[in-house]
User: Fold this.
Amino acid sequence: MKITLAQLNYHIGNFESNLRKMLDAVTLAKEEGSDIICFGELATCGYPPRDFLEFRDFIARCMDSVHALAAAAQGIAIAVGSPCVNPVVEGKDLYNSAFFLFDGKVQHISHKALLPTYDIFDEYRYFEPAHEFSTVEYKGKRIAFTICEDIWNVGNDNPLYKVCPMDEMMKDKPDIMINLSASPFSYDHAESRISAVRANVSKYGVPMFYVNHVGAQTEIIFDGGSLVVSPDLQVFDEMPYFEECIKTYNLADVQKGGINNEQQKEKYRLMHDAIVTGIRDYFGKLGLKKAILGLSGGIDSALTAVLAVRALGAENVWGVLMPSEYSTGHSVTDAKDLAVNLGIRHDIVPIRSVFDVYEGLLNPLFEGKQADVTEENIQARIRGMILMALSNKFGHILLNTSNKSEFAVGYGTLYGDMCGGLAVLGDVYKTEIYKLAAYVNKDGEVIPLNSICKPPSAELRPGQKDSDSLPEYDTLDPVLFQYIENRIGPAELMEMGFDPAMVNRILRLVNINEFKRFQAPPVIRVSNKAFGAGRRLPIVGKYLS
Amino acid sequence: MKITLAQLNYHIGNFESNLRKMLDAVTLAKEEGSDIICFGELATCGYPPRDFLEFRDFIARCMDSVHALAAAAQGIAIAVGSPCVNPVVEGKDLYNSAFFLFDGKVQHISHKALLPTYDIFDEYRYFEPAHEFSTVEYKGKRIAFTICEDIWNVGNDNPLYKVCPMDEMMKDKPDIMINLSASPFSYDHAESRISAVRANVSKYGVPMFYVNHVGAQTEIIFDGGSLVVSPDLQVFDEMPYFEECIKTYNLADVQKGGINNEQQKEKYRLMHDAIVTGIRDYFGKLGLKKAILGLSGGIDSALTAVLAVRALGAENVWGVLMPSEYSTGHSVTDAKDLAVNLGIRHDIVPIRSVFDVYEGLLNPLFEGKQADVTEENIQARIRGMILMALSNKFGHILLNTSNKSEFAVGYGTLYGDMCGGLAVLGDVYKTEIYKLAAYVNKDGEVIPLNSICKPPSAELRPGQKDSDSLPEYDTLDPVLFQYIENRIGPAELMEMGFDPAMVNRILRLVNINEFKRFQAPPVIRVSNKAFGAGRRLPIVGKYLS
Assistant:
């Protein structure tokens, strides 16, 4: 038996495009003499469809795609993920299902039992979990279909669910496990994915074919890396990361095993490729081409520009330098050097004249009050305004250049440097920014060394440095990481050896700035806990604040 | 037996304040000779605690409050909602529980079985559902405790769950049902709440004591309206809306029944009171006092100002008029009249001088391009900038004045009139704005009639009217309501008689503007489907767009 895995880049709600891609893959698989081709979870509509699932029309269009695929399932079987109406009145109205199609018809439907409802996942919001389990007999082989999370309760010290669907299906003695997934990227996820698949093969003793999505849906990046694990627990194949791939496997070869194609992975390469994918698909799926961003001469905007150029091409990225009276001479030079290195259009729009008019306008109301953060915010907002004006006039989308450390402690101006359609580096801590910049510069200086080496500064008042307002990033980031990624509270942080006063200060900063993050752009998610849909906190909360 | 219900205004994560309120209520109930006092769902920490629940420290502090209440449970029993650690390794780590405290100790814990995971609710994200059910024997009476959603599967045509917890508990033949709730307001929710409680009393034949939260947690408003329903299905008592209330009932009287205290409800009075509560608690719980807003002379900003004055007092509301060359003379007069009616500080800051400088600065880059929406957005952003500068300098929080129709179709400028800490009218359609304004003016003209009667206009270009860009609101709002509140898709809308071209145009506008709403301020929720946490849609979706 030949089994094809199709690791595709779907687009949420774009039924035509998703179906066309799948039909093309079916044609290819037929040419290769495949017996069955497998697509990802909810492949008809893309993942995550979110509240579109509440529209009957949306579900009907998913079913139209299923039926179109069924019609194409002649001489080949097709396994595809799609929502499915729950015929029973009690419980949620939908299942998250794997449709097995053959001979022009839907032959079998398996429902997902384990519904991830944590971080960015909201599946219990929409779906009823499967209560019954069955397998499929096809060409003399028995296949157990599972969907994504269904296999993640195995080999887990703190299982989130009380059942393991494969435990139930083992009564049928399946020959093969096929898992249709939509498993998003984080820089540490591929390892756990391989472990989970291996744990299942180890426990159940049959090979697993695991097919993932690839490509970005705003914040969420699917990295691909689809897997075939043979009964000897070797990674028979691991598909490429961040690109589409359609590949056919001979089951006999997989069962024999003895081949290991596990890939090397490196955090900053993965992060880099994920962000480039995130930018490319954000623009591509919204039908956009061109980006604009402010270039301050600092490392964050420089790195954002590089990633944008790699995603969209130099001809589609426009850098704007907006020096103020507090900008150092170096800032302009460094920004220019970067633009020249990248070959992108750049313009200089000094903000002093606008600032002066605002000052004149507001001074009568400021009634002799001292200059404070207000004046700093005005400068940041003038820059946001200029960028948005150019964005509106020319249709370039503004890229936000804030990093995760800044978002965490609220070191940024709402409607100023927090503007943008997409926060490219919003899930990358400042200390990681340096490492990502080093990765970018590995084959030669793209980001000027001066942008990397100088002390970080917002340059909104004379001689200002980030470290005037914040702990040094080397001190700040480890606390943020433990608090945000690992949900470690104050007492435990202090037990870990972090300074109590600093812990209290940092946690307070994080918590009182929820109101700012609420209005931040969507953040490309590269860690296992990004700001945005995966981290939900109340604005009026009074905890640690 | 005497039963006290305590309908309190909790504050998320403010353990000291929540505990103090509850202990004060216990003292009061003891003075009234009560046998048991009941607080709301998750009362120790406030609702919704969201991802704070992922911190061990947060749960420990909830348990500290439970133990402090247990210590006070001398001569009186206490029922209080709080998270509870799930001792079993399989499944989620927490339960959402009702603690029954007496004689200084935790005597019994009932867990919630039905975990709402829809709209603004994410309970399955945190909690394991109860799998076992038991009742409590106290002073010769058997009590069945349920938590909020647990009773909502009864009397429901499309039940979301497969079990009804009370069905299980009826084997113990309970004498009383007590439900600890945190059931948020929408203008049509009180009726369904009474129906749900009545359906339970009718099905199980014993009286129900239902205690709710009151007060706002950013977007979410709890309206109170706690209920006592006697076995004859009469509403023995319905507590006041939008205020705290502690009241003791004699069980014998309730069982006898024959008394109906059901309140009259009127949509716009409820909406008005909910929004005033929303503003008051947003400021109060964040430790803030003063608000600022732009007054355009239009109905939306006028209504926002009135509601702010009612929530915060005239001395704490500051109106800023920012006329441009396209503002009509009436606009300034109408805004001034309103400010005088309300007795609030108001200032005039014309925006022309700033606009001219931006134009001079950007013209070289605009390369002879025609004026378009860019110039309109610049004006809106100058206003946002001025308001934010005053907000930063004086610590007044900016109130956003956008309405739901505008948010829906993206008729607003990001970082311009979409700025603000709280969107006061963001869940009120334009056609409802008029009715709410009429309610505000019922005892005399507060909002100038001219602001109500003139055609809506953004006044960003000569002679502009909203109806140049949008269908008339009488046409627009019914389609939006069916699409947003009722999730009716295009084909069904056309079947309902709406014009196909208009339906397609409106739905497309809603869907392509997801990116704007993503960065909108939190919206005070008054309907059953508000923009924000209760409505989750992908930005890169290609559905109906």
